[in-house]
TrEMBL record:
Membrane-spanning intervals of the chain: 200-219, 270-289, 335-354, 361-388, 394-416, 437-461, 467-492
Protein name from the UniProt record: PIGQ acetylglucosaminyltransferase
A Pfam cross-reference name: Gpi1
InterPro entries: PigQ/GPI1
GO cellular component, as recorded: endoplasmic reticulum; membrane
PANTHER family membership: PHOSPHATIDYLINOSITOL N-ACETYLGLUCOSAMINYLTRANSFERASE SUBUNIT Q, PHOSPHATIDYLINOSITOL N-ACETYLGLUCOSAMINYLTRANSFERASE SUBUNIT Q-RELATED
Keywords of this entry: Membrane, Transferase, Transmembrane, Transmembrane helix
């Protein structure tokens, strides 16, 4: 059999002593966690390991002895290390020794209590204890068979080192009876700034939680459930984004400790996303209020609205004539054209009525950028929706009229074939009609058929205008979704400290010689950037249309209304 010994590279220059770690019998592997130096009292070592095992729930024990011949040159050292196996009674007893300045190591196994000792091949695997301790293993999602078994073995190694954090909290400056060598033996890694922020975050989170509870209580009150307010809350993108950011603040200010690494990373991603969003919003706000840019924007808005209205009037005048040489029904063409021209006239009057207040409205809207760039973008989307409300009305009128004629023609076409639509059974059944019904149906079918090209042309033009507005709003919402869902903290961590997000490991051969243990170096393979985004992507409230092109074309042909970007997105952990 092959016995694998995972040895921390930070202990390669440690003084002679005993090896403590965890024995994984299922894998026939030993994970060395630290080296206890001489002198020590075996009873105190056992008591210390018992306390560590009680806190970490990891079966930590003495696995063998470590001899650094460069530090200790006594002849009786090897015999003394062998005798330690009878005191701590671990089977098998691992003996690792470093031969001075030589690059070769010797590793042997003692099985004193075994009746039939077998010669085992030994593989000595070095690993960076700090990187393994701070990393989080992400096995492939499509693991199956042998790959799944390998991932579970690696998870056991990573889990053993991660759960033994208490063991690494003692350094050589402690005045305890036991001296250890591990990755933090020269001093525990810490930051004064981080510790102060941790202490200050507790009252800040409590105050923020109290304020958010009041705000969420107001949002859930019955006053907001009445018709006008509930309608605005469901239709305005700004309200949806504010509710989404309120949920993010509740996640950040929660007093509950993260149960696992995924929850911790999600909190960090939400915090960094919110921080960058607010920073970009403040930059936008500072840019808007410099050099009176809001006044210039307000002065430009009215001429742009007038220009759009003039272009629509020219388009309607073109449709009321002979567009592209098409022969239209003149009576219906004139009625529809005048109807839409009257709406444009109302819209121009409405814009000029609001013109004295536009600069003040934009000034207050600019202040909302301090809530984040995404809130400002959602307000921009709502402003575009309000400024193009007349185009939306044209689209709805044209779609309803076109849909009415399409369904009327399909119903009358079934009448010619002796069919009818059974509403109760939701199917087409046979039916017999008398002569009067067929005559009236023929007249109606002829009228609707000859009026269809005029209605279809108006519907096509206004649908294209509506799709143009929807595309602009869609690009804005895609940018909002990108800021909301992008795991920025995970991407920064992948860029700066890639070992923190481990997808697996690879082994490099350091030494291979007959009669000597095979020495390997375990290196961490970082998670790819695509894997980081897929694993830690944050949930968003809005998403672009999920319909296929065939479904979208079917809706456009039948005249069904399109409501993009207003349904809930996918929720993730």
């Amino acid at each position: 059999m092959v016995l694998k010994v995972f040895f921390p590279s930070c202990c390669s220059s440690a003084d002679s002593g005993i090896l403590i770690g965890r024995w994984i019998s299922e894998q026939n592997s030993a994970v060395i966690l630290a080296v206890v130096h001489f002198p020590f009292i075996p009873v105190q070592v056992k008591q210390y390991l018992g306390e560590v095992q009680r806190v970490t729930k990891v079966s930590v024990s003495v696995l063998g002895s470590w001899s650094n011949s460069k530090q200790e040159k006594e002849e009786s050292l090897s015999e003394f290390l062998e005798d330690l196996g009878t005191i701590f009674c671990h089977e098998p007893w691992i003996q690792i020794s470093k031969e001075g300045d030589s690059k070769f190591w010797s590793c042997s196994i003692l099985q004193k209590h075994s009746k039939n000792p077998q010669e085992e091949e030994i593989i000595l695997v070095y690993y960076d204890q700090r990187k393994v301790m701070l990393s989080h293993l992400h096995p492939p999602l499509d693991t199956a068979g042998q790959r799944a078994e390998d991932a579970s073995k690696l998870s056991a190694i990573f889990d053993t080192v991660a759960r033994s954090q208490v063991l690494f909290m003692t350094d050589r400056y402690d005045e305890g009876p036991i001296k250890l060598t591990h990755w933090q033996s020269d001093g525990v890694e810490a930051s004064i700034i981080v510790e102060l922020l941790k202490q200050a975050s507790v009252p800040a989170c409590m105050l923020l939680t109290f304020l958010l509870s009041l705000l969420s209580g107001i949002c859930r009150s019955r006053v907001l459930k009445f018709w006008p307010l509930s309608f605005l809350w469901s239709k305005l993108s700004t309200c949806e984004q504010l509710g989404h950011r309120l949920q993010h603040l509740q996640v950040i200010s929660s007093n509950k400790k993260a149960q696992n690494q995924n929850q911790l990373m999600r909190k960090a991603n939400v915090f960094v996303s919110l921080l960058i969003d607010v920073a970009l919003g403040i930059l936008l706000m500072s840019w808007l209020y410099r050099k009176n840019r809001i006044g210039h924007l307000a002065d430009t808005l009215i001429p742009v609205a007038d220009h759009v209205a003039e272009e629509l009037q020219d388009l309607l005048q073109w449709l009321m004539g002979a567009p592209a040489g098409l022969k239209m029904n003149r009576a219906l063409d004139q009625v529809l054209g005048r109807f839409f021209l009257y709406h444009i006239h109302l819209w121009i009057s409405y814009i000029h009525l609001l013109s004295p207040f536009i600069e003040m409205i934009l000034w207050y809207v600019g202040l909302s950028a301090c809530l984040g760039l995404t809130v400002a973008l959602c307000i921009l989307s709502d402003i575009i929706a309000l400024l193009t409300f007349h185009i939306y009305c044209f689209y709805v009128y044209g779609a309803r009229l076109y849909c009415l004629k399409i369904y009327g023609l399909s119903s009358l076409w079934r009448l010619f074939r002796g069919k009818k639509w059974n509403v109760l059974r939701q199917r087409v059944d046979s039916c017999s009609y008398d002569l009067d019904q067929l005559f009236i149906g023929t007249l109606l079918f002829t009228i609707l058929l000859f009026l269809l090209p005029t209605t279809a042309l108006y519907y096509l033009v206004f649908t294209l205008l509506r799709l143009l507005v929807v595309i602009v709003q869609g690009l804005i919402h895609l940018l909002v979704d990108l800021i909301d869902s992008l795991p920025l903290y995970s991407l920064i961590l992948r860029l700066c400290r890639s070992y923190r997000l481990a997808a697996g490991v690879k082994f490099r051969v350091l030494e291979q010689q007959d009669g000597k243990p095979l020495r390997l170096l375990m290196q961490i393979n970082p998670l790819s950037y695509g894997g980081v985004v897929q694993t830690y992507r944050l949930p968003t409230y809005s998403c672009y249309p999920r319909d296929s092109w065939a479904s979208l074309c079917k809706k456009l042909f039948l005249g069904e209304l399109i409501y993009p970007w207003k349904h809930k997105g996918d929720k993730q952990n």
